[in-house]
Amino acid sequence: MPKFYARRRAGVLAALTGLIASVGLLNGPTASAALPTPVSGSTARTYLASLTVTAENRTGYDRDLFPHWITVSGTCNTRETVLKRDGSGVVTDSSCAATSGSWYSPYDGATWTAAADLDIDHLVPLAEAWDSGAGKWTTAQRQAFANDLTRPQLIAVTDDVNQAKGDQDPSTWVPSRTAYLCTYVRAWVQVKYYYGLSVDSAEKSALQGYLASC
């Protein structure tokens, strides 16, 4: 085969491969954006100082008032998008379900190879958001909060750890992995500040203590 045609054929094949990969038709490991980095400790302390301190009220709360998981792109919903983002070498099927991959849970330092072992944690829990202001939001606002991929609000973690956390705030629960503690409280304050949510006195005191060493 003449060199010209060999080079042309190689170029066409390379272009086709790139095109296929770019539209996600190759059933191989997926690449995605990283988990959003929370604000600095100093910024978090400034944000915390500006938050309203008030008692919480859970009257009328129902998890279904925060619609999730919504479709993000194609057949992928928010949970599946976070699993692809937070995992390594994640492979998905035609319905966007993760069929293989590896996930590191920063809350406890565990590594998992089955998506079923992961929950997508709402760092500021939905019930906590309701207690501190989201009860006055519209359904559309609560949906945006429950599916927020822009702030450090959604993260793939060990399912049992997420279930143990439940609806607790940092006055009663923080990750057992101390290396992640500063990141966690910075993210907590950033999310509350962005959404104009309040804190209760015990929560603020705990956050101040943790942030003092960030």
Describe it for me?
The protein is α+β, with helices and mostly antiparallel strands. The chain contains eight helices and seven strands. A three-stranded antiparallel β-sheet has the order 3-4-5, with helices on one face. It has a two-stranded antiparallel ribbon with strand order 1-2. The termini are far apart.
Characteristics:
7 strands, disordered N terminus, alpha+beta, globular, single chain, 214 residues, two-stranded antiparallel ribbon
Write the layout of secondary structure elements.
Blueprint: H1 3-22, H2 41-50, E1 71-73, E2 76-77, H3 78-86, E3 87-92, E4 98-105, E5 110-112, E6 118-122, H4 126-131, H5 139-146, E7 154-158, H6 159-165, H7 181-194, H8 201-211
Helix pairs in contact: 2-7, 2-8
State the secondary-structure class: alpha+beta
Strand-residue proportion: 5-15%
Number of helices: 8
Tell me, briefly, the overall form: globular
- Which radius of gyration do the C-alpha atoms yield? 21 Å
SSE run? HHEEHEEEEHHEHHH
Helix content: 25-40%
Could you give the distance between the termini? 64 Å
Major sheet, described briefly? 3 strands, antiparallel
Mean pLDDT: 88
What is the number of E strands? Answer: 7
Low-confidence stretches: 1-32
* Adjacency order of strands in the biggest sheet: 3-4-5
